[in-house]
Structure formats: structure tokens, C-alpha cells
Design a protein that fits this description.
The protein folds into two domains: 193 residues, NAD(P)-binding Rossmann-like Domain (Rossmann fold); 96 residues, no CATH class. Helix content is 32%, strand content 21%. The chain is built from eleven helices and 16 strands. Strands 7-6-12-13-14-11-15 form a seven-stranded mixed beta sheet. A five-stranded parallel beta sheet has the order 9-2-1-10-16. Strand 3 and strand 4 form a beta hairpin. Helix 1 runs parallel beside helix 11. It binds uridine-5'-diphosphate. The site of uridine-5'-diphosphate has 13 residues, from helix 5 and helix 6.
Length: 374
């Protein structure tokens, strides 16, 4: 194909939530959009597929939540949402606990029965720290050693492959700690899962775009780039620049999914295994994300964190100092790149939730469409 053939206003690399949102905004404004994705399916990591009549979250649990009414209205244009509320449980040394930490958890641990008793007990176990510099210091200053060791230490070590003392506190601050019986994992007023899964929702968002799946942008980047006037890149920012300053680090995951000949395996969508010696962090039972009638089979997924290598999927950015320094070098290059926009969890190297990805994409699209008249 001739390099001058600019058939599209925009070429988007990656059909995850960021790419799909940008595509939707551009299509709505009558622009011609081409989306490329190296996977054989749309949706990126929010992809869901039907197995035994159950919507399976192939790349881990995705529970949509937001406190932004506009974002909630935005996603509800493309799918109806169910009323799922995330109430995971923790299993530690064969005991089950309510989670995130709430009055029921403290009652199970210590026998306290009122918020006042719980508060008093917490005062006695907290390890005060004037300026907590890492995840361990911060959580110890909130809840003390026993809770740290039961719920946080092993899970975090497994999840990130490094001790909590070497991780930033923001990772854990997403989890609420409550002295009421509220065990909703999220504080946001809007929460749910698209009925029928995320895949049809993404499909509705990208309606009108040209889609090429199973395509590796890097296999012929000049040709793909030349098909559009502008490019949106949602892959790893370091990959775009051929890792010229070295590789950014990520945390990867391995999912092991099985169909079981029983109606119910664990009675809940998510159970976290917080002991370090158990190699997985959580078991998902997908039917509990939905509110479908009982069925004779169930599908479960064990989630195993693993080190990232170039052959593996990068799931989580590691936002420590070393990697952030490296990221900023790539960001400086990205800022110079003409007519290319970088966005999403991998290109922005940020531990984004879905609603944050959408907010970021909506504002990027607005910027591109209205201020740069693309
Ligand atoms: N976390 C933990 N124990 C748990 C669940 C979470 O220590 O049972 C910590 C862990 O460090 C994790 C962080 O809290 O990385 C954020 O958890 P979240 O469930 O929000 O992570 P995600 O769903 O994005 O993997």
C-alpha cells in the first residue's frame, strides 16, 4: 500500500476501553476510524466470552464503578448494567473473613461488636508513623500488625513480587477501611457489570469503525501509521519507542480457567487468598458476577501473579521511582511525536480503573476534536 493513502482520520492501535472510547467519540463526530488490535478479539482486558452460558472475564474480574455521573451515563448508552456489588471474601489459613476491612472483619478477628469497641481496639494496635513512606508503613499505621499480616502482607507480596515496604502506599489506599458493616469494595455510588458482558458493550461503542484484528502494528508500523491522518497508540509506551531507554517493568498475571460439573464452587464472585504460600491471589467464580438462573456447571479462574517478561502480557505498571524516571524519558519523546496521541493504562503507565480510562479518553478525544480540529 502506498504510504500516502490516508484513508482514515484516525488509526487507533488497541481496541481496549481507551481505544473504543476514542473511536466512539470520533465516529460520533463523523470521522473515519480504523482500529487495529493484535488480539483476535475486541475489548482488550475487559473482554468477556460465553462459556457454558456464563460470561467469563477472560483477563480477570472487571467490575465497573464510578462516582462520576457523566461517566456512568456514558457507559449506560452502550449496555444495560446489572446491580452487582463487589463484596469479596478473604480466605486465610482456612478461615473466611469479610473484606474489605469492616466491622464484621474486626468482629471475626477480635470479637468486637460495636464501632466504638472496634475503634478502641484499633487505637491499641496501630503503629503510628508520622510520614509513612511506603505501603507497609501506611497500613501498619492504620490497622496494626495482625491485620497487616492476615490480609495484606502475603497478598501484596504475591501480587507485586516485592515486599510491601518497597511499594508506594497509593496501591493500598484504594481499599476502604470501615468501622461499619458496609462491605462494598468500592465507595462509588455507581457500580455494576454490563448485562451480556463487556464484549457487546465495546462492540456497540465501536460501531461504524473499521476493525482489523490479529494485526501487530509493529509488524509494519509505517504502513499502518500512513493509513490515517493521526494515530492513537494505547500499547506500552516503551514498545512504541523500541525500548530505546530500556524496558519499563510491569507485573503480569496467569489465568487458569476451568469448567466444573457443579452448580456452585464458592458462593461468591471473588475470594482472595492472602497467605503467601498459596500461589494464586484469588479465585473468581464467573456466574456470580451475573444474576442468571441456577445452572448445573460453573466456571472458575485462579489468578496467579507472575513476573513480566517481553513474551507475557503487561497488566500492571510498577510505579516505583526507577520506573517512573524511565517512563518520563519516554513521555518526553511521546510529547515530541507529531500527530500521535498516547493513552490508556499501558501508554500512560498508570494504574487506571475502567472509569478513569474512559474519563481520560473522553477528555483526550475532546481535546483532539475541538482544540486540534482533527
Ligand atoms: N490487597 C491486599 N489484600 C487483598 C486485596 C488487595 O493486600 O485481599 C492489596 C494489594 O496490594 C493489591 C491492592 O490492595 O495490589 C489493590 O487491590 P485491588 O483489589 O484494588 O487490585 P486489582 O483488583 O486492581 O488487582
Amino acid at each position: 500500500m502506498a504510504l500516502s493513502t490516508r484513508e482514515f482520520d484516525l488509526v487507533i492501535v488497541g481496541c481496549g476501553l481507551f481505544g473504543a472510547t476514542i473511536a466512539q467519540q470520533f465516529i460520533q463526530n463523523n470521522r473515519k476510524v480504523l482500529i487495529l488490535d493484535k488480539r483476535p478479539h475486541i475489548g482488550g482486558n475487559v473482554y468477556t466470552e460465553l462459556v457454558e452460558g456464563i460470561q467469563v472475564h477472560r483477563y480477570g474480574a472487571h467490575i465497573f464503578h464510578t462516582s462520576n455521573q457523566k461517566i456512568w451515563q456514558y457507559v449506560n448508552q452502550f449496555s444495560r448494567f446489572n446491580h452487582f456489588v463487589n463484596r469479596p471474601k478473604v480466605r486465610y489459613q482456612n478461615q473466611l473473613y469479610s473484606f474489605p476491612i469492616n466491622l464484621m472483619t474486626l468482629s471475626q478477628l477480635w470479637g468486637v461488636t460495636t464501632p466504638e469497641e472496634a475503634k478502641k481496639k484499633l487505637e491499641t494496635v496501630r503503629i503510628p508513623c508520622d510520614s509513612p513512606r511506603n505501603l507497609e508503613d501506611w497500613i501498619l499505621s492504620q490497622v496494626g500488625k495482625e491485620i497487616y499480616e492476615t490480609f495484606i502482607k502475603g497478598y501484596t507480596q504475591k501480587q507485586w513480587g516485592r515486599p510491601p515496604a518497597q511499594l508506594p502506599a497509593f496501591i493500598i489506599k484504594r481499599l476502604p477501611i470501615r468501622l461499619t458493616f458496609d462491605d462494598n469494595y468500592f465507595n462509588d455510588p455507581y457500580q455494576g457489570i454490563p448485562i451480556g458482558g463487556y464484549t457487546p458493550m465495546i462492540q456497540a461503542m465501536i460501531q461504524g469503525a473499521t476493525l482489523e484484528l490479529g494485526v501487530d502494528f509493529f509488524s509494519d508500523r509505517e504502513v499502518y501509521r500512513a493509513r490515517g491522518k493521526r494515530l492513537v497508540f494505547t500499547g506500552s509506551i516503551d514498545a512504541y519507542f523500541n525500548h530505546c531507554f530500556g524496558h519499563l517493568d510491569y507485573r503480569s498475571l496467569r489465568f487458569s480457567t476451568q469448567t466444573l460439573p457443579q452448580e456452585d464452587f464458592q458462593g461468591n464472585a471473588v475470594i482472595n487468598y492472602t497467605e503467601e504460600k498459596v500461589p494464586f491471589t484469588r479465585i473468581l467464580e464467573h456466574k456470580h458476577f451475573e444474576f442468571s438462573p441456577p445452572s448445573p456447571k460453573t466456571v472458575i479462574t485462579h489468578e496467579y501473579p507472575q513476573a513480566w517478561t517481553p513474551e507475557r502480557e503487561p497488566y500492571y505498571p510498577i510505579n516505583d521511582e526507577t520506573n517512573m524516571r524511565l517512563f518520563h524519558k519516554y513521555k518526553a519523546l511521546a510529547d515530541q511525536e507529531k500527530d500521535v496521541f498516547f493513552g490508556g493504562r499501558l501508554a500512560e503507565y498508570r494504574y487506571y480503573d475502567m472509569h478513569q480510562v474512559i474519563a481520560s479518553a473522553l477528555s483526550a478525544a475532546k481535546n483532539m476534536l475541538h482544540f486540534h480540529s482533527l
